UniProtKB/TrEMBL annotation:
Keyword DNA-binding recorded: no
Name of the protein this chain belongs to: Elongation factor G
Domain Tr-type G: 7-281
Keyword Flavoprotein attributed: no
Length: 512
């Protein structure tokens, strides 16, 4: 693959509630970029993103999948995240490295709990937000109601950029409020479209929403507002530049539409990503601890941020990173700022799900992976010797559920300990410890499904089968025999007196 400069890179996170079509949208985007020759399906287990045995079996995403493609001489990195809250830690890590998040919303459901969680995490990390209303090919869709639910949840800065001519099985045409044209998509799933005039019966609606879009962009910038008041309109160049600036500054949150499975809309989204999503160097300097900063520029000293770790059989640990500054090459010597030890950068990969492409160099802002780092973990910073900077660790959610485990076979304790450590390195939202007082191994996670997946991986990857049991209570004091006591209280100092008589009886109950 050719070398891409920082300004040619776009890092996009696909996030949202479960079953809103993130993985299918990833497939459609990759297909339109000709990275794959046909769109896979979740039902057939043929998608690029959901490639693990657990994901194919359950038909849900469990890990963030990193994919990429090229569109109009730009490299687009797409990070497809899980939607179930048990795996929200994947979203938290992803938000640290993407430069725009596309929040997917099912046209059948509208705003859901996961939508709001993703929004909050994006706000926390100051990531520009786009919405994609997906699955418009479904029946009984109330598009206007879904759009209004987004506005009500996230404010009047939410602006419509497209709306459907009709929804349901006949959804194949989009009114585009940028071009003020109707985009007619081919029925063959190719993603190709032609531009046509807006039907007369929809022209008033299109003009109304176009005006709201232009006004929202004008209101985001004083100079644009002045020009808009004077001329009554903005030129195309003024509007495009103003829209991109408004998106980067969180002044507008645009809403796009699609049906990923029928490939209606995604090709237009690729143009939007290239033209309006910020490049990594357009989001300002990156901040380290102690007020340190770096420009996202390949001429700066090298610094990498490790946002995910995956253990692969026959390869060892695969560390996913973003080049925060400088450029990284195979053979570079770096320092891990967590403990000061040195690391050597081995073979660098760019990813499409489980498929890896070897590259020798990645520039500032790009995302890749490297194998066999000696002692580097998720959240670590690697940087050039003598040019140190340390980026804040990832603030993962705390565990909310726990259970105790014990091996079914004697002598497996050491294998359990090793397996749990590897699984924790892969997923820091999973926590374990050995309780010396209770003589139990306690495992904690984000939910029942999360722990179920962890224990399945323990068995499949490390050959250890375990039984679950209730964590014991660490009793330190207890009632050994029956006891009774009585106390009286009297107070008389003028006015109404106070009197109390308390009888207390304690007796032991069965443990537990």
């Amino acid at each position: 693959m050719k070398e891409f400069q920082t300004g040619q890179i776009r890092n996009i996170g696909l996030c949202g509630h479960g079953s809103t079509g993130k993985t299918s949208l990833t497939e459609a985007l990759l297909f339109n970029m000709k990275k794959i020759t046909r769109q896979g399906t979740i039902e057939n287990g043929t998608t690029v993103s959901d490639y693990s045995e657990e994901e194919i079996e359950r038909q849900i995403s469990l890990n963030t999948a990193i994919t990429h493609g090229i569109w109009k001489d730009h490299k687009i990195n797409i990070l497809d995240t899980p939607g179930y809250t048990d795996f929200f830690g994947e979203v938290v890590g992803t938000m640290r490295v993407v430069d725009t998040v596309f929040i997917t919303i099912s046209a059948s459901s509208g705003v859901e709990v996961g939508t709001e969680l993703v929004w909050q995490e994006a706000v926390k990390n100051n990531v520009p937000r786009f919405f994609v209303i997906n699955k418009l090919d479904r029946e009984n869709i109330d598009f206007d109601g879904v759009f209004q639910s987004i506005v009500e949840s996230f404010g009047n800065q939410v602006v419509l950029t497209q709306f459907p001519v009709e929804t349901g099985p006949n959804f194949d045409s989009i009114i585009d409020l940028f071009r003020m044209k109707m985009l007619k998509f081919a029925k063959d799933g190719s993603g190709n479209f032609t531009e046509e005039d807006i039907p007369a019966e929809l022209s008033d609606k299109a003009e109304e929403y176009h005006l709201k879009l232009v006004e929202a962009v004008a209101e985001s910038d004083d100079s644009l507002m002045e020009k808009y008041f004077e001329a009554g309109e903005l030129t195309e160049d003024e509007f495009r530049a103003g829209f991109k600036k408004a998106v980067a500054e969180d002044a507008v949150f645009p809403v796009f539409i699609a049906s990923a499975t029928t490939n209606v809309g995604p090709k237009r989204l690729l143009d939007v990503i290239v033209n309006f999503c910020p490049a990594p160097n357009e989001r300002g300097e990156v901040k380290g601890e102690n007020d340190q900063t770096r420009k996202v520029d390949s001429s700066e000293p090298l610094s990498l941020f490790i946002f995910k770790t995956l253990s692969e059989m026959h390869m060892g640990e695969l560390s996913y990173f973003k080049v925060m500054s400088g450029s990284v090459k195979t053979g570079d010597e770096v320092v891990n700022m967590s403990d000061g030890h040195g690391e050597r950068i081995g073979q660098i990969f760019i990813l499409n799900g489980k498929e890896k492409e070897n590259v020798d160099k990645l520039n500032a802002g790009d995302i890749g992976a490297v194998v066999k780092l000696k002692n580097t973990h998720t959240g670590d910073t690697l940087c050039a010797k003598g040019k140190e900077i340390k980026y804040p660790k990832i603030d993962f959610p705390e565990a909310i559920i726990r259970t105790a485990i014990k091996p079914k076979a004697k002598g497996d304790e050491e294998k359990i300990s090793h397996g749990l450590q590897v699984l924790h390195d892969e997923d820091p939202t999973f926590v374990y410890y050995q309780d010396p007082e209770l003589h139990q191994t306690i495992v904690s996670g984000q939910g029942e499904l999360h722990l179920q997946i962890i224990l399945e991986r323990l068995k499949k990857k490390f050959g250890v089968d375990v039984d679950e049991e209730e964590p014991r209570i660490p009793y330190r004091e207890t009632i050994k025999k029956k006891a009774t006591a009585q106390g009286k209280f009297k107070k008389q100092s003028g006015g109404r007196g106070q009197y109390g008589d308390c009888h207390l009886r304690l007796e032991p109950l069965p443990r537990g």
